[in-house]
């Protein structure tokens, strides 16, 4: 990993502090920590984890660029789908993990253009640092919209409207399971001197084993199973009275996720716009993600009483919601037109985000189909 940029002294000190914290957790657990717990600490340990500390994460100065950072047309397009749901429910918007706040800003501006502003835009954001960045963004660029924002510490008991998660599910902790010599093992983390190392342990019972044992794999096969994503869907379903859970993320249906050729899983790390596969490098400074098993997401929603309202590629969803119309509505002589057109190419190209990213909608109590899935719905693939 010598090719990765070298962090500054303060960032390195934070990473070292988190490493000591994780080492303490490994010791407290008896010398072995399942990877889901390691990932949870690396990303969310208070004041130390990747999403809990104060480092820049989004945009050109951070570690990766998300769709809202590319163009405001992304949020304005989602506003069209949100407006359709709000018209049926009279509800609000709840965004999970709002990141820089850019999606919230563009979506609210889009809703304002449609004369469909909700009374409240709630954000469930556990990072105090990100909350302040979101608040500062609105105070700087849209102070008139700031009073509509409300930050939550936990999910509300009851909710109607749109629940939105853009690149949320991929950041939830995953367990690593390893099929070898005809048996399942769980891959965990141990302390090896001053570093962390992998160690497998037999997996013979429990919920994780039951899920692993159903996978159609053979040979030497390492992959991820998320218990956190279905748990989140169940919690959201329990509060949703009427409305939609809308998630945009990269991933596959189960048959593609656990394809025989994907024998090393999908776990990936991001640091300063460079991807690598070692989650032990610079803990707290490196993002750790895994692709989403959208079949598991759909099943958990169905089991919780929700209806699958659509599943499509990001490109198909955005086209259905009119993103190209929004671009055409801009003057070609505008200095930003070429930049916006290039951003749309990245969002929608099959070679970029258009095919890898998917959109799934689960809901309750709606009587009209969602515009984002009127063409190209792939629900049958789940």
UniProtKB/TrEMBL annotation:
It comes from Sulfuritortus calidifontis. GO terms for biological process: methylation. It comes from the Bacteria. Keywords: Methyltransferase, Transferase. InterPro entries: NDUFAF7 (IPR003788), NDUFAF7_sf (IPR038375), SAM-dependent_MTases_sf (IPR029063). The keyword Cell inner membrane does not apply. Pfam families: Methyltransf_28. The lineage of its organism: Bacteria, Pseudomonadati, Pseudomonadota, Betaproteobacteria, Nitrosomonadales. This is SAM-dependent MidA family methyltransferase. One of its GO terms (molecular function) is protein-arginine omega-N symmetric methyltransferase activity.
């Amino acid at each position: 990993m010598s090719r990765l940029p070298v962090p500054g002294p303060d960032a390195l000190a934070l990473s070292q502090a988190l490493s000591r914290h994780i080492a303490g957790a490994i010791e407290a657990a008896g010398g072995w920590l399942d990877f889901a717990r390691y990932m949870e600490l690396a990303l969310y340990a208070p004041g130390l984890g990747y999403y809990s500390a104060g480092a820049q994460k989004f945009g050109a100065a951070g570690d990766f660029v998300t769709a809202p950072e590319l163009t405001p047309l992304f949020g304005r397009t989602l506003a069209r789908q949100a407006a359709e749901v709000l018209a049926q429910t009279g509800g609000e918007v709840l965004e999970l993990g709002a990141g820089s706040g850019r999606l919230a800003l563009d979506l609210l501006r889009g809703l304002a253009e449609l004369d469909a502003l909700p009374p409240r835009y709630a954000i469930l954001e556990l990072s105090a640092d990100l909350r302040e960045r979101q608040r500062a963004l609105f105070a700087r660029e849209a102070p008139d919209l700031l009073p509509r924002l409300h930050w939550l510490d936990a999910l509300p008991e009851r909710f109607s409207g749109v629940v939105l998660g853009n690149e949320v599910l991929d950041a939830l902790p995953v367990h690593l399971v390893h099929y070898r010599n005809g048996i399942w093992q769980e891959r965990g983390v141990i302390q090896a001197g001053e570093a962390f190392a992998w160690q497998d342990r037999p997996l013979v019972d429990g919920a994780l084993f039951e899920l692993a044992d159903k996978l159609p794999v053979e040979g030497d096969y390492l992959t991820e199973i998320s218990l956190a994503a279905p748990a989140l869907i169940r919690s959201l379903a329990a509060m949703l009275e009427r409305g939609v859970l809308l998630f945009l993320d990269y991933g596959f249906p189960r048959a593609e996720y656990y394809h025989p050729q994907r024998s090393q899983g999908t776990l990936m790390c991001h640091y300063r716009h460079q991807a690598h596969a070692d989650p032990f490098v610079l803990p707290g400074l490196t993002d750790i993600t895994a692709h989403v098993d959208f079949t598991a997401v759909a099943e958990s929603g169905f089991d919780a009483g929700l209806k699958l309202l659509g599943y499509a590629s990001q490109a198909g969803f955005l086209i259905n919601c009119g993103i190209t119309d929004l671009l055409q509505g801009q003057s070609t002589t505008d200095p930003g037109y070429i930049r916006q057109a290039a951003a749309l190419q990245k969002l929608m190209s099959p070679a970029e985000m258009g095919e890898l990213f998917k959109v799934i909608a689960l809901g309750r109590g709606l009587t009209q189909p969602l515009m984002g899935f009127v063409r190209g719905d792939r629900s049958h693939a789940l």
